[in-house]
Structures are given as structure tokens and as C-alpha cells.
Amino acid sequence: MEWLIIVFIMLFVIAPVMWLKPSPRQKRQQALRTQIAKQGVSIKLEKPPLHHFRGTMPAYRWHYPQEGPGPDFLLVRDSNASEALTPFHAGWRWRIAPLRPLPDAATAALKTLLERLPQDALVVQSTPYALTLWWWESQTAERFATYLPEFQQLREALRGRADQPFSQPLKGTEKSSSKVSDQDTGLS
Predict the structure, then answer these.
(1) Domains of the chain: which residue ranges?
(2) pLDDT in tens, 48-73
(3) 112: which residues sit within 8 A by CB, 6+ positions away?
(4) Which pLDDT value is given to residue 172?
(5) Which residues of 114-145 are buried (b: 16+ CB within 10 A; e: fewer)?
(6) Can you tell me the distance from the alpha carbon of 79 to that of 75, in angstroms, rounded to the nearest whole number?
């Protein structure tokens, strides 16, 4: 009877430790995120731009350079899209279409990428700041790394195609304001 109590106490102590141990899926996802982040992709868990979605989803972002913002658009896989949305290519629909037509190089790169993405990739989004893929991380780092050149090619093709031109600071305004302040203080 004493041995039974000791075994029960040992199981009671060991059980929380087993819960803390990462599952094989968590290990695979962590290896994927670590390896892809080394390639310059930022990864965050956020609420995706899907209607009636609760919770968070991994978002993989390729940032546009500050001097070359990208266009706004949002593509959703048919499985998560309304029939009212305009079809685009290979089972994807525009939820937000770009205001200006994309250049041929960007359209070709986007179509190629959409054909290759895994089934758990649900949203491809572009904002002036980043190109984002929302997906459930079903693949290994080695497999997902095969998509990286296509994402980089697409990002480069979309770079500088912002719907709204970003305002640049006026040239010479800093000099003229410093001259005025120097003249006001009598430091000229």
C-alpha cells in the first residue's frame, strides 16, 4: 500500500513537467520560425484579416524598404472567402484588389507563388510596409525555404508601387528654418 502511495505522489510530481515539454509539432514550428527569421522574415502571432476569425495565426512578413512602399491588396484562399469576392488565380480571391494594375512581372510572380503555397496558407496581404503570408505552418523549414526566393522576387516587383504616394520632406526647409532661427537670435 505504501508503494502505491509513493507511485501516485511521483506521478503527481512528474505530470506538470511532462506538460512543459514541447510537443513534436511545437519543436518543428520553433525550428521553422528560427530558420526563416534568420533569412530576414519577421514572424508574429496576430489576428489575421479574416471575418469571424477568433484567435491568432502566424504572420510571416517581408518588409518593403522605407523608400519603396508596396501596394495595398488582400488575397484570400477560396476555402475562407465569400463567393461574392472576385476570383483571381488558383483558388484565391481578391478581398481588396490593388487600386492600380500590378506590373506584369509582379502579376507573374504572384501567380507562381499562389500556385505553390501549401493548403494551409489562407491570406496573402500587401500593405505599404510589408508583404505578409498568413498560414498554419504545416511544413518544415527546409520545404518553406523553397518559397523564399519567390517571396523576395514578388516583394522586389511590388516595391515602389504604393497606391498613395508617400510625402517626402521638402528640400531646403531645414536650412531656411535654421537661418530664420539664427537671424532671430542674432547669431548670424
Answers:
(1) 58-160
(2) 998 888 899 999 999 998 888 989 99
(3) 150
(4) 55
(5) beebeeebbbbbbbbebbbbbbebebebeebe
(6) 12
